[in-house]
User: Fold Deacylase from Pandoraea aquatica.
Amino acid sequence: MSTQPTWWQAFGVDYADARQRFRTAADHAGASLTSYVHPDAKAPDGSELSVDVARLGPAHAPHQLLAISGTHGLEGGAGSAVQTAWLTHAAQTLPPDVAVTFVHAINPYGFAHATRTTEHNVDLNRNFIDHDKPHPVNAHYASLHDHLIPAEWTSEGLAQSARAIDAFRTEHGPDALFNTLASGQYTHADGLIYGGRSREWSNVTLQTIVERELSQAQRIGLIDWHTGIGEYGEPFFLCFNAEGGDEQREAARWWSAERVLNQRPHGLQRPDYQGLVFRGVEQFAKGRPVIGAVVEFGTRGSNASVANRLDQWLRSRAQAHPDAARDRLLRADVLDAFVPVSSVWRNSVLTHGLQITAQALQGLATSG
Assistant:
């Protein structure tokens, strides 16, 4: 692999810049490019929003890697940079009989508007459930909802929230609190980790992409790039393959058992995550093996959850008392919480991201 770019060569300053960098890199690498333009939502300047897909490798490759950026909108800056850097500096290392499909900004609204959720305030990574069946129940979310997003984002408002959250932790324990705040909820459309009441456009579009681009794959590797959990700038793996199954063992072979097995985000029990993109890809693969992980790059540790709540406050409460300067500052805080503007963090993301991609490709190439 040739020398990786410095961070400012791979990271875009915003969605439009990241998209252009990705498309240029894909074109120079000789990848096929397909765009799925959002039929309704627009960027803040009124321009189009698009999921862009770059595919490189043999059309009938039996082993294919699917790497997705931007599931949580604004987090897409990191995954986009890894995708762009690989296309620019490592495309020539693609093993024979392996193909890659890079999905850029699967949630383009969130990426462009600097929010984690979709145009309907839906957490896309909780949307991949069967919406024709009763929705999963988050037993404790309703009791915390009004405390999580205060009416005013002030010291007093946050102090009141902290007291309610601490009381819940004392009564139910830290694992139950984390599960309540992260597993997904389907009752409060203006709340955290809202999974929606029907399939989002991005959900349907991902199905189309998998069915079109990976129809020939016999085995699929999956990386869903995220940020937030883990040590600063370091990767944290959440593998959702069946415990003890062949796919989990294969993921551990690619990336090491130490990284893949028995992971505890923030040192806590892993939440009972609902509606993951991972589950959607498994469904769309129609029985073919899917091996992979959500790969996070750590930022503020457990404090990233405060930025998630701030994101929701800006979406649902800030308009009650308009203040453009305040909101610009707070939105910058949210962005920095998930994609820090730090050469240390961004160069670390590129180093690890390129290595993780290479390990997945090598793992696919040597699959039994």
